[in-house]
């Protein structure tokens, strides 16, 4: 039944009613309905509910909707959902939102999406998050990203992460 719900109907739901939806109901909603959820409705999603959204639904969220997700919801994204994010969504994530993601989740970003993160945002990552990022992503840091990192952030890289950097990146 959820698949047949209109945008108008879903937009009329209160935050309490949104929280009452089952994960399977959320996943069955048409992508256009998800795209048009109010920021207050998305902010009301409980941590576990976020996993009910499909990867396509996550990738279709507007940047303001991505920013309205709670840190608990972001921290509960499946790696496939993180991989489904598009660069315009990733670039809008603030340091609090980025730190809500685990190193494993951050490693699910595509290379292109990882490269839109500024050195300021990378500097804001907690050391444990930074250390959890895969060497395959670290090896794709741009020279601009690397050049802008603070000495503290550089010091927080693991030896395996440093080992994958090349002379072009290091300038």
How is the topology of this model organized?
Elements: H1 7-11, H2 15-20, H3 23-28, H4 31-35, H5 39-43, H6 55-60, H7 63-68, H8 71-75, H9 79-83, H10 87-90, H11 95-100, H12 103-107, H13 111-114, H14 119-123, H15 127-131, H16 135-138, H17 143-148, H18 151-156, H19 159-163, H20 167-170
Account of the 3D structure:
The chain is an all-alpha fold. Helix content is 60%, strand content 0%. The longest helix is centred in the first third of the chain and has 6 residues, at 15-20. The radius of gyration is 18 Å and the shape is elongated. The N and C termini lie far apart (57 Å).
Distinctive features:
single chain, elongated, mainly alpha, 171 residues
The outline comes out as elongated
How many runs of DSSP E, i.e. beta strands? 0
Question: What is the strand content?
Answer: under 5%
**Can you give the mean pLDDT?**
93
**Total helical elements:** 20
Percent helix, as a range, is 55-70%
Intertermini distance: 57 Å
Biggest sheet layout: none
* Estimated structural class: mainly alpha
* Model regions low in confidence, pLDDT < 50 over at least 5 residues: none
Rg computed from alpha carbons, rounded to a whole number of angstroms: 18 Å
SSE succession: HHHHHHHHHHHHHHHHHHHH
Brief overview:
The protein is mainly alpha-helical.
């Amino acid at each position: 039944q959820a698949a047949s719900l209109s945008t108008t109907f879903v937009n009329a739901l209160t935050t309490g009613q949104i929280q009452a939806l089952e994960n399977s109901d959320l996943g069955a909603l048409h992508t256009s309905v998800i795209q048009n959820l109010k920021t207050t409705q998305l902010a009301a999603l409980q941590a576990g509910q976020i996993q009910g959204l499909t990867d396509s639904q996550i990738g279709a969220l507007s940047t303001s909707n991505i920013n309205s997700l709670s840190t608990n919801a972001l921290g509960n994204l499946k790696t496939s959902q993180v991989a489904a994010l598009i660069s315009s969504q990733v670039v809008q994530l603030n340091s609090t939102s980025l730190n809500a993601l685990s190193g494993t989740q951050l490693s699910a970003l595509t290379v292109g999406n990882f490269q839109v993160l500024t050195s300021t945002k990378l500097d804001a990552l907690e050391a444990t998050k930074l250390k959890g990022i895969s060497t395959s992503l670290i090896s794709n840091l741009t020279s601009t990203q690397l050049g802008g990192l603070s000495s503290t952030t550089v010091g927080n890289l693991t030896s395996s992460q440093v080992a994958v950097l090349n002379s072009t990146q290091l300038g």
